[in-house]
Amino acid sequence: MPKVLIADALSPRAAAIFAERGVEADTLTGLSPEELKRVIGGYDGLAVRSATKVTKALLDHAPRLKVVGRAGIGVDNIDVAAATQRGIVVMNTPFGNSITTAEHAIALMFALARQIPAADRSTQAGKWEKSRFMGVELAGKTLGIIGCGNIGSIVADRAIGLKMRVIAYDPFLSPERAVALGVEKVELEQLFARADILTLHTPLTDATRNIIDAAAIAKMKRGVRIINCARGGLIVENALKAALDSGHVAGAALDVFATEPAKENILFGHENLVATPHLGAATTEAQENVALQIAEQIADFLTAGAVVNALNMPALSAEEATRLKPYMRLAEQLGSFAGQLSRTGITAVSIEYEGHVAALNAKPLTAIALTALLGPRFDAVNMVNVGLLCRERDIRVSETRREEPTDYQTLIRLTARTERGSHRVAGTLFGLVKPRLVEVEDIEMEAELGPHMLLVRNKDKPGFIGKLGRTLGEAGVNIATFHLGRSAPGAEAIALVQVDQPLEDPVIDAVCSIPDVVRAKAMRF
């Protein structure tokens, strides 16, 4: 029976769902990092909220772990890259608390506009300072939203209902989606210059960390009001305090802070600050929703292989998971191969599915291939955001299916077009299980990929294979497998060699010096 550790406080119903679905669940909350390291090795799944930090160091002690589930949206407390390297699926619940968090942002916006917390304190202290608390209307004001995803789009909808003008900055927001939401898509500099009220709804990444700093605030209108219900690290708190002190920022409403729990903070006590203790998702409905959703998702993954709301794996039903597993590996190899061949920017990608695979759910296969293709070029690309990344960067993606088999019962062909030309690679499954390359750059060949490969393009001349083998032998490189293909006798040829160790630059240089070599490249899979 699979075992799951519930490391943060969840609804008791979550443990009941695990039991109902044949998963053993232990609830151990409040563990220190060292205590968690000592026990995590006995579990297949881990359910957390924001308190538990799922670090690379923790994952090093988790040989059994297959899935980490975050009851909530943000996963900055989870090292997704480290989890992916270990084949651990990371899931979240992106919709369970979206409405709750959006409503909290709207509540803070009202609180700022009418100075409600300060007015409440004053009135209950027996003062009647009606003239002191002169507020502003929200109607007609420009709301700038940084991050227009699930939560940001709900905030936009509510703000439009309040008769506000809404502008949004989000690299992944398509023009069509912006029109559908009724918002104006702008660049970050424009948003800073135009917003009367600014609200943050973006994850904390290397690209968004400290996005609101002194330089950004200097570009904003005097009297701007700033709201943050997303992540504390988005704002440089010293810079915000200076702007509040000078009056450049009229008010700030923060639900999150750079260090939490925020028992002390440089901003605390400022008369123009509204602060709440990370309450964005703190409603009865939201807490129940995210707890039940993550329990269902983890249980279904561990018992049936179903993947829902994963950040590093495509969505799959339980039935599809088993059938697509060998194709996933093939799609990943093809994407990685074409990506390593490409030396300039990729402008278009076409993926062809022929035979048996054309009748299957190809969306996760396309996502896996694109992720492997673009992974070396872009940070934080995964199977969830790769489609948006392609659209944002005008990488055209086409997918064709042909259920009638041609030379193979099942075949995937990937073509990556770059600024200098195209790279094409195709593969099949032997016995519908083992991935094999069957075409590289329009040259037919059969090859099984290993961790360390050498690709050589050469002129088809007598004695070349011996020279290549001798060069590798003199460098102390052991050959595991050797695959050959050529376009025609005496024309262009390809050698794909699996070796036992990584190939250093001096070895590649020695191979390139062999007469008739056009190009040599070390590849890793």
Task: Provide the fold topology.
Blueprint: E1 3-6, H1 12-20, E2 24-27, H2 33-40, E3 45-48, H3 56-59, E4 67-70, H4 80-85, E5 89-91, H5 98-114, H6 116-124, E6 142-146, H7 150-161, E7 165-169, H8 175-181, E8 184-185, H9 188-194, E9 197-200, H10 214-218, E10 224-228, H11 237-246, E11 249-254, E12 273-275, H12 284-304, H13 318-341, E13 346-355, H14 363-374, H15 386-392, E14 396-402, E15 410-418, E16 421-430, E17 434-440, E18 443-447, E19 452-459, H16 464-474, E20 479-486, E21 492-499, H17 505-512, E22 517-524
Parallel strand pairs: 1-2, 1-3, 3-4, 4-5, 6-7, 6-9, 7-8, 9-10, 10-11, 11-12, 13-14
Antiparallel strand pairs: 13-15, 15-16, 16-17, 17-18, 19-21, 19-22, 20-21
Would you give an account of this structure?
The longest helix is centred in the middle third of the chain and has 24 residues, at 318-341. It is elongated, with a radius of gyration of 28 Å. Helix 1 (12-20) links the parallel strand 1 and strand 2. It contains 17 helices and 22 strands. It is α/β, with parallel strands linked by helices and 525 residues long. Strands 8-7-6-9-10-11-12 form a seven-stranded parallel β-sheet, with helices on both faces. It folds into four domains: 3-96 and 285-304, 3-Layer(aba) Sandwich (Rossmann fold), CATH 3.40.50.720; 98-275, Rossmann fold (3-Layer(aba) Sandwich); 314-441, D-3-phosphoglycerate dehydrogenase, domain 3 (60s Ribosomal Protein L30, Chain: A), CATH 3.30.1330; 445-525, 2-Layer Sandwich (Alpha-Beta Plaits).
